[in-house]
Amino acid sequence: MHIMEGMLSSQMLTAGWAIAGVGTAIGLRKLDADKIVRVAFFSSAFFLASLINVPIPPSSTHLSLIAPMGLVLGWSAFPAVMVALVLQALLFQFGGLVVLGVNTVDVAVPALVAYLLFAAPIRRSSGTVAFVLAFVAGFLAVMLCALGVEIFLRGTDTNLSLIANTVFLAHIPFALVEGAITAFMVAYMKRAAPDLLMGVER
Question: What is the pLDDT of residues 6-29, one digit of tens each?
């Protein structure tokens, strides 16, 4: 899910920075001071999970906890993701600072989609229904992330279509794993800390 530096056109890089900037600004505006701990926790969880990194040039895939982060943080997933990616770029040379905007968009937008589509239904549901919805949210978030990589690569050069397709297909097993992890995390949160699923801006 990290696109490497030197692969994207200036237009794609600019678009990535623009979207990431707007999303991060909204996320920070919606973030209450007493909820910063939640953002820090999920930023750290994303940072650690994505250290299990499988290179698929010109990108890579890894565990990410995108959907759980989105379900809890909403718009504030943007600053959480950006901080984690900055640290990864500086400490481990994952991705890079030039492609920071694009990589932030590629993770934070699927997290936000998971929040917008699934947070309310999961809060209202219980048992098997909530478990299934959480699985779908986790699976969909990873596949949207893979789709984002494909869009940015194709937007740079249509000759990268084969690579883009390979990257997309390689995310499917990770999406299934993320779906299962998300389902179990949501089941635990609904039992132990249901207020976490209310979102940081509520």
Answer: 778 889 999 999 999 999 999 999
